[in-house]
Design a protein that fits this description.
This protein has about 260 residues and is of the alpha+beta class. It has helices at about 5-15, 20-40, 45-55, 70-90, 115-130, 165-175, 180-185, 200-210, 235-250, 250-255; strands at about 95-100, 135-145, 155-165, 195-200, 215, 220, 225-230, 255-260. Strands 1, 2, 3, 4, 5 and 8 form a six-stranded mixed beta sheet that branches. Strands 6-7 form a two-stranded antiparallel sheet. Bound molecules: zinc ion.
């Protein structure tokens, strides 16, 4: 029994939807196929190297890539195992989602886009507000694909954080997230840059922070001229292949956000 079996057993019991190792392998298989198909079509050597890397990932020899669903599952388990006790004994925490609309960017900038800069920006702001206690969470992105105007499609960076429920400081954070630049970035649509909720289910909330899957949220303008979105779905193959190359270039610690935590 390894040290993660406690968390695995708990997840099996309380979150049957949490992916099994077998499901992670099936997802990896799909990713490998798409990477190879995309590489062939556009002559992208990075995709081929990554496909081989994912294929080599087996028990006892993890590839460690953040594009690998098997390793990403392992990361979720490891982080949950590390933090579960803390959050279960600190009911004074909330889960906060922070969306940076003002940092949205097109797919052609994906590989060059700098996550560290955004993390520093967030860290500085949280330090300025002066939150106490550990802050732990993860970074991810959704791809807002415009079905009618493809050139308007953009990645939307956001964080899910577990943070101390300090109403005064959360209000300051909300004011920062709601400043005009972020609130009115999208024409005709008011944004929701910050939402938070009580931690009723620590296990669910925590594993949610580290999903490690980037989704597409299709966008369109309805007959009345109003911008709308559809339910999230899988990324289209070419965007998925590129996002996997990006994820592969990011590290576990880059995708994790921690503050006020003793190393
Ligand atoms: Zn792997």
């Amino acid at each position: 029994m390894n040290s993660l079996s406690r968390v695995v057993n708990m997840l099996l019991k309380e979150m049957p939807a949490f992916e099994t190792l077998k499901q992670a392998d099936v997802e990896n298989r799909t990713r490998i196929t798409i990477l190879r198909r995309f590489a062939k079509k556009l002559d992208k050597p990075d995709c081929l190297v990554l496909a081989d890397r994912l294929e080599s990932c087996v028990k006892g020899h993890p590839c460690g890539s953040m594009a690998c669903f098997r390793c990403s599952r392992q990361r979720r388990l490891r982080l949950t195992n590390k933090w579960l006790d803390f959050f279960q004994t600190h009911p004074d925490y909330v889960m906060v989602t922070l969306v940076f609309y003002d940092e949205m960017f097109p797919n052609r900038h994906l590989l060059g886009w700098d996550l560290n800069r955004l993390k520093q920006r967030l860290r500085k702001q949280l330090e300025r507000i002066g939150f106490e206690g550990p802050i732990v969470g993860g970074f991810e992105m959704d791809y807002h694909r415009h079905t009618q105007k493809p050139d308007k499609s953009e990645w939307m960076p956001h964080f899910h954080l577990l943070i101390l429920n300090d109403p005064v400081r959360l209000k300051q954070l909300r004011a920062y997230m709601l400043r005009g630049k972020n609130l009115y970035k999208r024409k005709g649509k008011k944004n929701r840059p910050m939402h938070n909720g009580r931690l009723f289910d620590v296990l669910r909330a925590f594993t949610y922070c580290f999903k490690g899957i980037w989704w597409e949220i299709p966008q369109f303008v309805n007959a009345a001229g109003k911008p709308k979105s559809r339910k999230k779905c899988r990324l289209t193959d070419n965007v998925l292949a590129k996002s996997l190359v990006k994820l592969d270039r990011l590290t576990d610690s880059q995708l994790t956000f921690t503050m006020n935590v003793q190393k």
